Amino acid sequence: MRARGFALLAALILLRPPRPLLAQEGTPPPEAPPLTHGVAQLVVDGEVSSLPIAITPQGTLFPLAPVAEKLGGGLAAGPLRQGWVLQLPGRELVLVAGSSSFTDGEQIVALSQAPADAAAPDSPGGLFVPIDLLQAAWGDLGYGFTWLPEELRLMVERRQLRSLQIEVDLVHLQGVTTVVLQFPEAESQAPQYRLRTRRDAVEVELAGDRLLPPARLPPPGADPLVEGVEVTPERVRLLLAPDAAAESYVLRNPFRLVFDVYRRSAQASPPAEVRTPERQPGIRTIVLDPGHGGTETGAIGASGTAEKDLTLVLAQALKRRLEARLPVRVVLTRDEDADLPLDTRTALANQFKGDLFVSLHLNSSIGDGAHGAETYFLSMQASDAAAASAAAAENAPAPGAGEGPEEDPLYDLQLILWDLAQSHHLAESQRLAGLIQEELNTTLSLRDRGVRQAPFRVLMGAAMPAVLVELGFLSNSQEEARLQDPAYRAELVEALVRAVTRYRAQGETARSDAR
Amino acid sequence: MSRRAAALVLVAVAAAGAAALFWLRRDGRPQASGPPPAAPARQATETIVLYFPGEPGLLYAERREVPEAASEPARLKAIVAALLAGPQRSGLEAPLPAGVEVAGVFVAPNEVAYVDLRSPDGAPPPAAGSTRERLIVYSLVNTVLSNAREARRVVVLWNGVQPGAFAGHLDTSRPLAAATELLAERP
Questions:
Q1: Residues in A touching B176 (Cβ below 8 Å)
Q2: Fewest CB within a 10 Å sphere: which of A276, A315, A472, B4?
Q3: CB–CB of A211/A236 below 8 Å?
């Protein structure tokens, strides 16, 4: 409930007009467009009622409240009495008068014109919205809207229920089963559905369409986490194994509903049967990635220090110290000054069956003021499977940009699974990042720039806890000078060794407690 | 000419002058036989917002009043060109080195804006640490999304190609949403 309140408040802050992301002081708010009031007819499946309208230079606005009353939907004032919240089955839309966007869950959707608080003298008032908002709100429920300005009629018609084809795919990889429900004929209009989570199943209940029997279904009992998939005209049911849980997300173009099924107990300590035989619990292999290399220099300091050179020196020293201190194998993604694509670095880490991936970097910023260390793990924007895969689906090749990997029909699925590989390790990545940052802060008196998240490509495909450490700013002349000092670099290396040692020890303790 | 004739000429000239003066002052301009010509239209303008990198690693808003463009692609191209040209305020920087130009900006039906940048001699994106790289990329992304009418995400193309990572860190193989955490509250 509290999280929902925060989400609504965040949406309201996001939607607050004017449009620039930050309003500057002294800038007057834009004037609301002049409104002319009128009365039209609302025709819903042949039933006629009167409907106040507001006419602006950009077009006609329709009152939301009576439409919601007719078609179904709750309309309430937003938190702190700011904006409006339209509640629809399984969805919440947040609107603000004067803002030409609204939020639909986590999505921000643009409107043809901003809604207006447009109380006419003889109308009940409330929020007036453009027709595209009505279409966005109720279109998925099967309603179509047509405005006939000459006749002053808003026609609302409910389309026929669709009989949708469904395809069910199931993949099991590294302890996670991914189930993809694809609706190939629903590209233009996504099916509306409700999710119901039960103790031993997850159900997808169609709100306005019906499902045709799928051509094939995964055989029952073939997957360790999903015992079966049942499809009826009204719903899809995933039968989960005991102790299994599912998270869902949506991909578009075409519309797909994806479930990530995992063992609840695997989050703390994955059971042996869902791990690859070669990868045993504990930290046995650490992959160090010296950032940049070859023609890609990375940041260049004022006195000419190249990031690629220092990261290699640091990684080589860290490898020696880690192998001396811990019973681990340490592998470098590059051991010379050579170009190495980011995806290859992660692929190597996976190939080496690394238990940790640490990418070493040195930073640069605008001017020379920024200094200090910071440690990154993958941001939710990048790792959240819904966002990432939706973005990938949107990522059609640009005109003139040539053909991309999106041409490959399997690319999306590969991308999803690849991203999931890291998203499954985010908590551990965060724990490692926290320990590294703590050690760097306490022992080196560096400015604490903190643990951060960013969509860094080198972290995305790692099937293990993965962090990127920025050990200082080459754009800061004092820090550049320190980084050129071998004694200082040795201190940095020792801080990283201590962090990895603590991380490993914490993992051992957790495992022995579990036993 | 007799004195009487001269007086008549003077009266006639004075009457004509008075009539002309009355005619001119009646509405401030000579009357034409057809409909009056339209007054020259004042060029419509709009306010845009540009986000420039500045210390300590944040993006600062700068507003400009610019003439309205004929089309959305032309408008967005002009906005990105203004961003690349650099800030008017001291202490801020242009996101990219001089010489980098915008070849075009277009918004695809999936509400993704493509910003096509061209570098002199096809040079790669400038070398940068991750902080600088994020400032470069998100100055473009945040600027476009603040001004575009129908875009929700941005793809940055470099010499017509979408880089996997702009300067070796940030994943630019996917459309990017605005990064509000990089915005400075007070320029």
A1: 455
A2: B4
A3: yes
Query: What phi, psi does A41 have (nearest 5°)?
Result: -115, 135
Identify which of A337, A345, A341, A333 has the alpha carbon closest to the alpha carbon of residue A308. A337
| Residue pair B158/B124 in contact by the 8 Å Cβ criterion | yes
**Is the CB of B149 less than 8 angstroms away from the CB of A110?**
yes
DSSP A228: E
- The percent helix, strand, coil of chain B (3-state, each to 5) is 35, 25, 40
**What is the pTM (predicted TM-score) of this model?**
0.53
pLDDT of residue B39: 60
Quote the ipTM score: 0.72
In 10 A of CB A16, how many CB atoms? 14
Distance from CA of B36 to the nearest CA of A (A): 27
Task: Encode pLDDT of B146-185 as tens digits.
Answer: 999 989 999 999 998 888 899 999 989 889 999 888 999 6
CB-count burial class (<10 Å; 0-12, 13-18, 19+) for B121: exposed
| Tens-place pLDDT, residues A168-201 | 888 776 577 878 888 776 656 677 777 777 778 9
How far apart CA B128 and CA B131 sit, in angstroms, is: 8
Helix (H, G, I), strand (E, B) or coil at B64: strand
- Nearest CA to B92 out of B120, B52, B142 is that of B52
- Provide, as residue numbers in chain B, all residues whose Cβ is less than 8 Å from the Cβ of A109: 152
- Amino acid occupying residue A305: T
CB neighbour list of residue B120: distance below 8 Å, 6 or more residues apart: B99, B100
Test A342 with B168 for CB contact under 8 angstroms. Answer: yes
Instruction: Map out the domains of chain A as residue ranges.
Output: 34-158, 163-267, 276-397+405-514
Q: Are strands A59-63 and B101-107 parallel, antiparallel or unpaired?
A: unpaired
CA distance A250 to A390: 7
A369 and chain B: CB distance < 8 Å anywhere? Answer: yes
Residue A244 Cα, gap to closest chain B Cα (Å)? 31
Of 3.10.580.10, 3.40.630.40, 3.40.50.150, 3.40.50.300, which CATH number belongs to A276-397+405-514?
A: 3.40.630.40
Separation of alpha carbons B87 and B171, rounded Å: 26
Give all strands (DSSP E) within A45-192, no chain letters. Answer: 47-56, 59-63, 74-77, 84-88, 91-95, 101-104, 107-110, 116-117, 127-129, 143-148, 153-158, 163-164, 167-173, 176-182
pLDDT in tens, B29-45: 444 445 555 666 667 89
Contact across the interface for A21 and B173, Cβ inside 8 Å: no
List the one residue out of B86, B129, B124, B78 whose CA is nearest residue B105.
Answer: B78
Nearest chain A residue (CA) to B113:
A398
User: Which chain B residues are within 8 Å of A473, Cβ to Cβ?
Assistant: 129, 131
Bond before A254 cis per omega within 30 degrees: yes
Question: DSSP string spanning A177-234?
Answer: EEEEEE-TT-SSSPPPEEEEE-SSEEEEEESS-EEPPPS--PPTT-SSSEEEEEE-SS
- Interchain contact, B61 vs A361, CB within 8 Å: no
Q: What angle do CA A160, A164, A165 make, to 5 degrees?
A: 160
Placement of tokens 């238990």 in the chain: A355
Q: For residues A180 and A201, what is the distance between their CA atoms, to the nearest angstrom?
A: 16
DSSP state of A89: T
The minimal CB distance from B183 to the residues A21, A107, A253 is found for A21
Architecture of the CATH domain A163-267: Sandwich (2.60)
Q: Tell me which architecture the domain covering A34-158 has in CATH.
A: 2-Layer Sandwich (3.30)
Scan residues 141-180 of A and list those with Cβ closer than 8 Å to B. Answer: none
Q: Is A454 helix (H, G, I), strand (E, B) or coil?
A: strand
Contact yes or no for B106 and A399 at CB 8 A? yes
